[in-house]
Amino acid sequence: MKNVFVRLSILVAAIMLYASCEKETFVGAEDLPQKGIAFLSDNFQGAKANHVKKEDEGLGGVEYTVYLDNGITVKFDKNGNWEEVNAPDGQTIPTGFIPSKIVSYVRDHYPNEGINSIDKENNRYDVELTNGLDLEFDANGGFVRIDD
Each residue of 41-54: pLDDT tens digit? Predict the structure, then answer.
């Protein structure tokens, strides 16, 4: 019983330590990694960053969320690689950074819709269209399925 209590105490302490390491601060757009600055400049000309939230997630690393004045949000990892781009409901995002197979699939199968958001994960892309339909694509941009 004593051994179980010790293990449980260590687990609780580890969880508390991890939670205490998570910090959110607001920084300037110039504090983004250079790759993130270039991404914004290449894909969102004319839009300005209202504010940039930097999240230090302890063991999980650093993540930046940029809130643009046009309502679009862009998340970057610690190196400035985009992870997620979201527009307000019904609005479209630029597609220059999205794999061409995904853009072509949406254009061919949903000609009256645009891409409202995209989330890049390890081996897939989650895409939401302006009509709210969620599509899943593999890492190469091949269509996988309509996501429920």
Answer: 999 999 999 999 99
| pLDDT tens digit sequence for 11-35 | 544 454 455 456 889 888 889 999 9
What are the CB-based long-range contacts (under 8 Å, 24+) for 71-78?
A: 72/44, 72/47, 74/36, 74/39, 74/40, 74/44, 76/32, 76/33, 76/35, 76/36, 76/39, 78/33
The CATH number assigned to the domain with range 21-82 reads: 3.40.1420.30
Pick the CATH number of 87-148 from 3.40.190.290, 3.40.1420.30, 1.10.490.160, 3.55.50.30: 3.40.1420.30
pTM: 0.81
DSSP labels for 1-15? -HHHHHHHHHHHHHH
* Per-residue tokens: 24: 């959110």
Say which DSSP state 141 is in.
S
